[in-house]
Design goal:
Butyryl-CoA Dehydrogenase, subunit A, domain 3; globular; 3 domains; 13 helices; 49% helix
Length: 399
């Protein structure tokens, strides 16, 4: 940790250098994360010690409070060597992006004494909450708790049991690790090292300051959002962060395919690099990945512009454009990896093959709802044709 005054530490933080510095460490831990089916302890420590876990944490509590663009870039960079580390960082810092919209009392509980925390949870409203004296009672089971093994706090989405008794249908709440039960369901095609277990909560009491109505919070309208970062729309940011991670994985897989193909020969001595069909696969997949990178760069620039303008709420058209671009990045990455893996040869069937690893991870990551291609293409088409999504203002803005 740098021994500088807080303001200096924030302004001088070199997140690109920090990410590049831990790449060898993450690469070395990647296989163990796969074996453990959770993020390796040293990889988690590297994310914290590098400062990357504080990219979007509020300055007041030792964070850097940067634009989502910094986090998007970092996720793509880490994806070049370790899908699981990239994904866990993506998810946990995305939660900081939300916690900065909670009351200061909640932020102090979460961050004071350890701003380097990795904060897990699940944003989908798979639980139920009901009002009780002094706050809420929470129950539920949530899937996909990436990074949960390393998290002291959790964020969960939950539906209100009696919708007539409240102005909103969905809330997001913060809860301590002691109130969360882990159910190890994470046996999957890819992304095995993320440890994305099911999380169970039974009759946990949540004080009022640790619960926020989802609609204003996710739209950037929370009265507790003290910086422009926290006045940006949540799901536009989350989708973009995820697309950075997926693209990094695909770039790694494509590079490995090119390297392997350059030296491959068939059993009969045919040089694979001289095959016209192989050359076409390389050309087309390379173009898709290059286009995805250009889209990602454009997303980052637009987030910086939106943050500087600081005029929430973002319009449906602008918000869904972020979602669409992120989903298209994920789709281009998936298409590229599908194409090259189909020509990886029999050796590509074996565990540990770098192209297989990247292929499994990209395909798995693209199943995340926030970049579901069919759903987001409908959103983009509707906004393009009709100008808005016609959302229920009492419902969660998961768009």
């Amino acid at each position: 940790m740098m021994n500088l005054p807080l303001d200096s530490r924030v302004s001088e933080f070199d997140y690109k250098g920090a990410a590049r510095a831990i790449l060898p460490r993450l690469a070395g831990a990647s296989a163990n994360s796969e074996r453990l089916r959770r993020l390796d302890d040293d990889a988690a420590a590297a994310l914290r010690e590098s400062g990357l876990s504080r990219l979007i944490t509020p300055k007041k509590f030792g964070g850097f409070e940067l634009s989502p663009s910094a986090h998007i870039w970092a996720c793509a960079e880490l994806g070049q060597v370790c899908s699981s580390a990239s994904w866990v960082l993506m998810v946990c810092v995305a939660h900081d992006y939300i916690i900065g919209r909670f009351p200061e009392e909640c932020q102090r509980e979460v961050y004071e004494g350890d701003a380097d925390n990795l904060l897990a949870g699940s944003l989908q409203p798979q639980g139920m909450i009901e009002r009780v004296p002094g706050g809420w009672r929470l129950n539920g089971r949530w899937q996909f708790g990436s990074g949960c093994d390393h998290s002291p706090w959790f964020i969960f989405g939950a539906k209100v049991i009696d919708p007539k008794a409240d102005d909103y249908l969905v809330y997001h709440v913060m809860i301590r690790r002691a109130d969360v039960i882990f159910d190890d369901t994470w046996h999957t095609l890819g992304m095995r090292g993320t440890g994305s277990k099911d999380l169970v909560v039974r009759d946990a009491l949540i004080p009022e300051h640790r619960a926020m109505p989802t609609f204003p919070t996710f739209m950037g309208l929370s009265p507790h959002a003290k910086a422009p970062t926290y006045r940006l729309p949540v799901y536009a940011g989350l989708a973009s962060m995820l697309s950075g991670s997926v693209l990094g994985m695909a770039e790694r897989g494509f590079k490995a395919f090119v390297e392997k193909t350059s030296e491959r020969k068939s059993a009969y001595g045919v040089v694979k690099a001289e095959s016209a069909s192989m050359q076409r696969r390389i050309a087309e997949s390379g173009a898709e990945i290059a286009q995805a990178r250009r889209l990602l760069d454009d997303i980052c620039q637009r987030f910086d512009v939106a943050m500087a303008a600081d005029q929430p709420p973002m319009s449906d058209r602008d918000r869904i454009q972020f979602r669409w671009d992120a989903a298209y990045i994920a789709e281009l990455s998936r298409r590229a990896m599908e194409r090259v893996y189909a020509s990886a040869g029999a050796h590509g069937l074996y565990e540990g093959h770098p192209v297989l690893q990247a292929y499994r991870d990209v395909v798995t990551a693209c199943h995340h709802a926030v970049v579901d291609f069919d759903t987001v293409s409908e959103m983009q088409g509707r906004v393009t044709l009709l100008g808005s999504l016609n959302e229920n203002p009492r419902a969660a803005p998961f768009a």
